[in-house]
Amino acid sequence: MGMPMGRRTFMGASAGLAAGLALSTGAEPAPARIGVIGTGNRGTHLLSILVNLPEVEIRAVCDLKPEAAQLAAEMVEKSSGKKPTMYTAGELDYQNLLARDDIDAVIIATYWQWHTRMAVDAMKHGKYAGVEVPAALTFEECQSLVDTYEQTKVPCMMLENWSFRRDNLALLNMKRKGLFGDIVHVHCAHSHNCIDHWFFDPEGNIRWGGEFLVNRNCDQYPTHSQGPVLSWMDINCGDAYATISSVATESRAINAYFARKFGPDHPSAKRTYKQGDIVTSTIRTQNGKTLIINYDMQLPRPYDNRWMLQGLLGVYSEDRESVYVEGRSPKYHEWEPFAPYQQEFDHAYWKSMSEKELAMGHGGTDVVELKLFLKAVREKTQTPIDVYDSATMSSIIPLSEASIAQGSKPIECPDYTKGAWKTRKPAFALDV
Asked: Which of 185, 327, 346, 382 is most buried, by CB atoms within 10 Å?
């Protein structure tokens, strides 16, 4: 699921526009043949981008609700003139889609609890899996993704769109050019009040996402915050998570919201929720760096990611939209605007965006992500976010849950690369 983006993400977006997003060179391979599993809000949003891309053919759509699949099929037919096959015959009908030999990859945008199973099944059928966030919910699911990839060698990519934001990729370029020096600490968060539209509907009825608040106390949604952080900190390619300690506040915000809006006798005002209002996780890496991740999705607040990147030579603050770089910033210990840096270090992925692409999918972020996924499918190469990074980001859910349950005890983080992080080289978003 993608969240709204603030204006800072698109500073300088009008500069350097060209006809399209140039992500490949040489002879063009055949279009990627895609099936979309899950055609609700997020699935149809992704589909609305896919139908506008020339490098893709939508062969099939699948959803538990026939009316949702029908709307998706009509969207494809209106764009291409060809109606995709619909799969709507129950929870397991997606397996019939996967069994087809004329599909190269699937986009999975279903309820969270189906993500891992569908991605695993896709890999076993030889289909690239582009799975929405989070890719997994438990330790067992994270390991299952990795094991299946290593058995099949079919790539699996969690569709973490915030990894591809324009500002975050410019920061990655700055980091790789040494402006910040060695990174020693990062802070990130997913802060967005989702009570009245995601966890519950506007009338106060609990939605599928709200059930997780009843049953688990953890960082429920840690991937948007971590997305760009992995590349900033060279996680899984030079460093790795070592231990995590998580603490949660008590759960008050949801009951308070329903008591205010619907009265104290509303069922949701009286329901018991396991989920604390704010979860703070502190990670120490194998190389002695630290990372703080906040979950904050139940209290009144505007959207915020609170990214802060601290190196030996400088610092970036998303809150301030500012940087300070020792030896470069004009005034000693004074912030300067980030906008000129974003323009100077703009990533190649963004330099050729068209006006049409900038208007789609979180200001173009989803376009960049999907084009890169499709490029990997068409060229039969590794996806930009691989299964190891997908599992690492998703593992914060069960890791934070385990630490909270044990009184914030430090928990050892799984190493899905089996030590290969020591020699793996950075591969994500290498600029050209």
From this structure: 346
Could you give the count of Cα atoms lying within 13 Å of 134 in the half-sphere of its Cβ? 23
pLDDT tens column, 359-404: 887 889 999 999 999 999 999 999 999 999 999 999 999 999 999 9
Any bridge partners for residue 37, and if so which? 62, 108
- pLDDT of residue 24 exceeding 60, the answer is no
Q: Which of 259, 320, 306 is nearest to 278 (CA)?
A: 306
Q: How many angstroms from the chain centroid is the CA of residue 280?
A: 19
Amino acid (1-letter code) at residue 69 = A
Sign of CA dihedral 22, 25, 28, 34: negative
Sort strands 105-108 and 32-37 into parallel, antiparallel or unpaired: parallel
156-158/290-296 β-pairing: unpaired
Provide long-range contacts, Cβ within 8 A and 24+ apart, for 175-178. Answer: 175/232, 175/309, 175/311, 176/426, 176/431, 177/345, 178/313
Q: Which amino acid is at 201?
A: D
pLDDT of residue 26: 53
pLDDT per position as a tens digit, 139-182: 999 999 999 999 999 999 999 999 999 999 999 999 999 999 99
Domains and CATH numbers, the chain: 17-161 (3.40.50.720), 163-353+386-422 (3.30.360.10)
Partners of 246 in the β-ladder: 281
With H, G, I as helix, E, B as strand and everything else as coil, classify residue 80: helix
Q: In this predicted structure, what is the pLDDT of residue 177?
A: 97
* Spatial distance between the Cα atoms of 80 and 61, rounded to a whole number of angstroms: 14
- Could you give the dihedral angle defined by the CA atoms of residues 321, 324, 329 and 332, in that order, rounded to the nearest 10 degrees? 120
Determine which helix (DSSP H) or strand (DSSP E) holds 294, and give its type and residue range. strand 290-296
74-81: average pLDDT: 97
